[in-house]
Predict the 3D structure of the following.
Amino acid sequence: MNDSERLTRLEERYVHLQRHVGEQDKAMLEFAEELAKLRQELAMLRAQRAAPAEGGESREDERPPHY
């Protein structure tokens, strides 16, 4: 393998790695956005769950409608 072929192979690997890193960056950004949404939803659900306890009404003591 001469220097020209070796350089060509290195350039091909470098381009492949650049593309791979770009794809990983995009995936990480998507995961970060999803995580932010899930954290926001979790906070909202926790607030909804805590709200009845603060108001004095407890859903756990409530009888189902068929009783």
Remarks:
- Residues 1-52 form one domain.
- The first helix runs from residue 3 to 55.
- The chain has one domain: 1-52.
